[in-house]
Amino acid sequence: MTNARIFINPESGSIKIIGAVDFVDREGNILETKENVKFCGCGLSKDKPNCDGSHRDKAAKKD
Ligand code: FES
Predict the structure, then answer these.
(1) 15, 26, 38, 58 — which has fewest CB within 10 A?
(2) Domain boundaries in the chain?
């Protein structure tokens, strides 16, 4: 077993987890296991909690 690694992009706010992640319910029962997930940390995704790339629009508006 390897530990999952996490990368939080300080510019976009996206949160990328590299490796296997168990999604659990309130009691800790595993509902599903996914590999290499990316969550939205900017608040703009239309597919929350997943990052859908909408943070790029925010970056483009800064220019
Ligand atoms: S971080 Fe990518 S859409 Fe929010």
Answers:
(1) 26
(2) 5-62
